[in-house]
Every structure is written in C-alpha cells, then in structure tokens.
User: Which sequence fits this backbone?
C-alpha cells in the first residue's frame, strides 16, 4: 500500500534522454520502479537504453497505459511539460525541475486544478501535481518516482514522511531507517513558493493509509503551509504527527537557497509555525534525531 | 532581483501607470539641474536596495534649487545600512496635505498559489506596520494568474478599502500594476503611496518592485539593472561558481553543505552550538572535489569566518571527493582555518583514510552534524577569545 505510488505505478519520464532524466531513469529502474517509456519531442520512435521514446505524453500514455509522469525538463519548458501531461489525463505528475518561473507555476497549478475538478466530475481519479523543485516520492519496497538515493530506503516501515526539502528528506528517511522504523511513503512536496501539492493535501492520504501509523512533517521558513497543516491536523487527524522546522535562525528578507524559503514581513516566521503546531498539539523536534524519539513516544501512547 | 524606485517606476510607466515625474542624478550638480528644469520644489531620494531610507535621512524635501543641491551633497555618498548611495531620484514634490495617500501592492502568495492583491487606505506607511497595528484595514484579494486583475475586481477592492476619488482611474492603475507584475515576473510590487489629489486622479509616488530571479532569462533588457557593486563581493564570486550563497551578519562559522534544507538546518545547529553562522552556502548535489575546493576557497576569503563547518549528506556525493577538495585547499595554502565536517553516505572510510594520511589537525571528520558543529563553534569562539 502506501500512498500515491506503488507496484502498479507505470511511469513515463519527460526529458528521459537528458543527463538528469537518463541517470534517474536508471536509478528508478534499479529501485524496482516500472519505468515504461520516455518522452522527448523530436526523438519519438527511437530507443533509449531499452526504453521506447515518444514525441508526446499522450502517445506514451496510450501505448503503455502509464499512470505517472516524472518531469526532468529544463525550467523554461517545465510548466508546459506539466500542462501537456495534465491535458493527456495523467493522474500523477511529478515535477523535479528547480528554477521554474513562479508566474509559470501559478498558471500551471491553476490549470491542473481545473482539469482535476473536470476529471473528477467525469468519474475519473483526478489529476495531481507534485512539486516543482522537489525530490519526488517513494513507497518503500515498491516504487520510487524521484531522485532520492536508493540505499536509504532499505527497510520498509510504517512512518509517512512529507518534506519541503530534498536533503532533509534523505536525512530523516535515513534516521528512521537506521532506528529500525523505516518509512511507508515519502513525499517531497518541493521548495518553491507555488507548488502543486501542499502538506495539507498529503496528510489526509496518510490518515487513510492502513500501512502508515504516524507522519513526520518537515517544514521550513517561508509561506504558511505549516500553519495550514497544523490546522488540518487539529481538525481531522487521528494518527500522530511530528514536525520539524528548518531555518529557524535565518534572518528576515533573505532567501535561503529555496525560492520559497524567505521570511517576508511577518509571513513565514518560525515563531508563527511553532505556535501553530503547539496549538494543534503537534510536537516539534529541535533537532533531526529528536524526531525519532518523538515518533517513538507518539506511537507508545 | 530588487529594483530601485526609479527602475520600478520605469516599468510601471511602460504599462501606463501615472507615475510622478522624476530623474536620476549622480552628482549634486545634476540634482540642481533637474530641480531647475522642474522649476518647483523637489524631493531628493536615495536609491539603495534597503528599506527605511526616509528614517535614515535619505529622502529630503527641497523647496529651492540651492536646497536641492545641498541635499544632493548630503545624500550622495551617504551610507545607509552598509550601502553607499551612488544615485538619487529627483522628483517633483507633491502637496501631500491636499490629497490622500493609499497603498496597493501584489505579492506571490503560496497560500492561494497566485498573487494576492493588497489595498489599504493607510498609505505612506510600511504595509507590515499596518498589518501589525490594524490588519482589518488591509483588503486582500486573489488575482487570477491567467486573466490578471479585472477592472471590476479592482473597483470592488478599492471600495472595500475605502478609497475615495476617481474610482475608475484608481482601479485602472491597479489593473496596470497587475499587468506589470504578470508580464515582468514580479515577486513583489507596491505602489505606496498611491496619491489621490483634489482632482481625484491617482498618482504613483513611490514603488517597490522585485523580479523573480528564475524568470530573469526572459527579461534580458533588464540585465543591466543588476548592480554588482550593491551586492556583497563574496555573493558575486559565489554566483560565478553557481553556488547559492548568502552572507550573514555577525557570524564566525562558515557553513557549507549540499542542499538548501540541510544548509538551513546547519545554520540552526551552529546557533545551538553557541556560535553564529557567517554564511549560507549550498554547493548542490553530486559535489566533486573541485566544487568543494571552490566552496572552501570562497568561505575562507570571508574574514568573519574563524572555522568552517561542512555538512554533507551523500546520496550521490562521495565523502572521499569532499575530503579531496578540502585537502587540496590545505595543500594550496588556501585553507588556514579549522574545518570540521560531517559526511554521511558513500565512501566514508576512503575519506577517513585520506584525512589520516594528511594528518592535519585543521581537518577533522565527525560522525554527526552536532559534533562537527560543536567543534567548529568552539574553534571559532576560541579564535575570537570567547
């Protein structure tokens, strides 16, 4: 089980023949993911290391009954690649690309949401975008649609992980792995200001997943996604949630690497996020290893 | 990229916004010439990329040509929050008391996954101050990123905010601001104050404009507006290497790692260890020895840095490559400060062997980020006699 991706995910790679697309297609295959085809406009009909390459998402999807697309297209064409996949009716679209202009993402996210609603109204399963600027997602022991190092996912477990940061996702997954707990599904939602799926969108999926017992939320400064997550947890979650907030010592007005990691005025401060989690009775770890202790404590209650 | 007031105004003018006349001067004589040309009282305004110019004495009303010259002399060359004023904007003065000052602005808002338009009748103040004191006086409205702001929406917001004057003209200014934001990839745009005179016509007196760095590739015409002299020299050097680097004030520990999240957390860990991070430096994934070498070189140039904390989580990154980069910096005489590092992941044993061979007390590896940060903090504080 787990959420969003599993053994049945049939994955196409948009931008497979580029450097990043190629190396991560190999790594995903190694992990055991069913990578079925690639899409590179102009290279349709060719073969890439045994994978058939198509000119369009629609062709690849039709030929292989694909249900997930992962995108490694450079920033200037990334939002367009998302829209192509969404209009082809791809149920899950994972945008890895970092550096996509925010206005492009605003337009793409809005259009994906409209297509999602239409698709659902017609009885479909909907269309969801994860990212951009994200490491993707992994359901331990089943499928990886992302760029995480394979070896930190050796012990499948029952902890769900959601994060705005790539490297901290790896850090947390490894800590959980080494502590003998392991993860069910890991979802990297991305570090950009405008992203397709937020913490509050993923939490209900974990709440409903029989293979997840507790959830770790790794947030950071900037925006108010953590506050929205805290509100959702307080109102709807029965499973325990543990949080961590990165960048607590960052100064105001400076962008900390991620385009979305910036405190603007009074929005995005660590104080506001800590207060929101406290109000929702969600323990917040001061250091990453403390996450493990807090998850253990929450599960033993 | 943050724009100066005069640059932001230039963009707004391109989109048809009624902007207060003004010209840029680089010398007091130029200030005088502009004041003479206008033949009326002017305001001399420092053009620097920091807030609070007025409070710092960087904005001066100048009733006469001589006074304008004098104020030009005072403001040009002045230091505002560490930045030297090289340019002033000389604008026609407006009789503020004869009209009203409003605020309108748009900001990228992740909560609504688009822009939020903000409007307030409390113009002339920083919007953060209004938000803190009287949040109910700020009217917010999500702008559709595909259609942009429509005139009827702008009128609705203006009415709710209590704006008086020619509502159609005020709404039109807001619509044009929205067009400027969407076409020019603004992260933030503000018209503040938006002055409405006795005739009811809106006039943009000041603006803030910041452009999304990720979109700069499609604004090649604005590339010249990037001012290297206004940026920290180390930030300029970092951009040559393609590093995400931010210089931090009052720090003593140089921090570098692979990934924005891990570096942000590394800053927090240094703080907890009782020292202060001097910078944020993300060297990216898959870092090779040469990249690490350049990163160490960059951080070592910072005279604030007394010790360096390297925090690498190796998925793709090999620990021995990181060690090689640091050792190379030591051998080349670039590295003179202690390096305390934590590298988790592949080839840790090879890295340890390489470091043992060198046997320098300057470079030490630790099993956790906390131990490495503690040691770096101790070294840095000891070097400062703390």
Assistant:
């Amino acid at each position: 089980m787990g959420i969003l991706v599993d053994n049945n995910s049939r994955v196409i790679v948009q931008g497979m023949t580029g450097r990043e697309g190629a190396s991560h297609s190999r790594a995903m295959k190694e992990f055991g993911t069913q990578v079925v085809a690639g899409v590179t406009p102009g290279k349709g009909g060719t073969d890439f290391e045994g994978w058939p390459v198509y000119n369009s998402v629609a062709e690849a999807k039709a030929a292989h009954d694909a249900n997930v697309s992962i995108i490694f297209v450079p920033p200037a064409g990334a939002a367009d690649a998302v829209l192509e996949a969404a209009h082809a009716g791809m149920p899950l679209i994972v945008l890895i690309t970092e550096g996509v202009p925010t206005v492009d993402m605003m337009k793409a996210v809005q259009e994906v949401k409209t297509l999602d609603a239409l698709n659902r109204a017609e009885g479909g399963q909907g269309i969801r975008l994860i990212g951009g600027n994200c490491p993707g997602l992994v359901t331990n022991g089943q499928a990886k649609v992302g760029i995480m190092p394979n070896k930190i996912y050796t012990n499948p477990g029952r902890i769900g992980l959601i994060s705005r940061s790539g490297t901290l996702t790896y850090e947390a997954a490894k800590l959980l792995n080494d502590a003998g707990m392991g993860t069910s599904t890991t979802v990297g939602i991305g570090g950009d200001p405008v992203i397709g799926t937020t913490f509050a969108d993923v939490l209900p999926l974990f709440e409903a997943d029989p293979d997840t017992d507790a959830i770790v939320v790794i947030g950071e400064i900037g925006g108010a996604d953590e506050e929205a997550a805290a509100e959702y947890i307080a109102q709807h979650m029965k499973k325990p949630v543990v949080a961590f907030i990165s960048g607590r010592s960052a100064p105001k007005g400076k962008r900390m690497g991620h385009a979305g990691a910036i405190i603007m005025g009074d929005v995005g401060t660590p104080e506001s996020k800590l207060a929101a989690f406290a109000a929702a009775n969600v323990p917040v770890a001061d250091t990453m290893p403390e996450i493990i202790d807090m998850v253990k404590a929450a599960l033993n209650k | 990229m943050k724009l100066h007031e005069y640059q932001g105004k230039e963009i707004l003018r391109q989109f048809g916004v009624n902007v207060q006349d003004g010209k840029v001067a680089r010398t007091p004589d130029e200030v005088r010439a502009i004041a003479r040309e206008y033949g009326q009282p002017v305001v001399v305004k420092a053009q620097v990329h920091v807030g609070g110019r007025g409070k710092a004495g960087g904005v001066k009303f100048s009733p006469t040509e001589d006074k304008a010259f004098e104020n030009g002399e005072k403001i040009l060359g002045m230091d505002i929050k560490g930045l030297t004023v090289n340019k002033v904007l000389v604008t026609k003065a407006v009789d503020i008391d004869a009209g009203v000052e409003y605020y309108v602005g748009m900001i990228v808002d992740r909560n609504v996954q688009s822009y939020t338009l903000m409007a307030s009748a409390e113009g002339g103040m920083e919007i953060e101050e209004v938000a803190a004191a009287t949040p109910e006086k700020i009217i917010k409205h999500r702008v559709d990123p595909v259609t942009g702001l429509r005139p009827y929406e702008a009128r609705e917001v203006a009415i709710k905010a209590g704006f008086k004057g020619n509502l159609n003209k005020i709404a039109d200014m807001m619509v044009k601001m929205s067009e400027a934001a969407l076409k020019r990839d603004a992260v933030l745009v503000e018209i503040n104050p938006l002055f409405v005179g006795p005739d009811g016509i809106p006039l943009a007196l000041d603006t803030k404009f910041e452009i999304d760095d990720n979109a700069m590739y499609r604004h090649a015409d604005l590339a010249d507006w990037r001012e290297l002299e206004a940026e920290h020299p180390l930030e300029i050097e970092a951009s040559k290497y393609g590093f995400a680097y931010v210089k931090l004030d009052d720090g003593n520990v140089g921090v570098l790692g692979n990934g924005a999240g891990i570096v942000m957390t590394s800053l927090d860990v240094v703080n907890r260890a009782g020292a202060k991070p001097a910078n944020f430096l993300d060297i990216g994934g898959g870092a090779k020895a040469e990249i690490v070498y350049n990163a160490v070189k960059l951080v070592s140039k910072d005279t604030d840095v007394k010790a360096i904390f390297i925090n690498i989580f190796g998925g793709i990154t090999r620990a021995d490559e990181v060690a090689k980069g640091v050792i190379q910096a030591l051998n080349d005489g670039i590295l003179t400060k202690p390096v305390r590092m934590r590298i988790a992941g592949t080839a840790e044993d090879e890295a340890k062997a390489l470091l043992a061979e060198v046997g320098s007390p300057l470079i030490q590896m630790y099993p956790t980020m906390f131990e490495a940060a503690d040691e770096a903090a101790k070294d840095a504080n000891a070097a400062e006699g703390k």
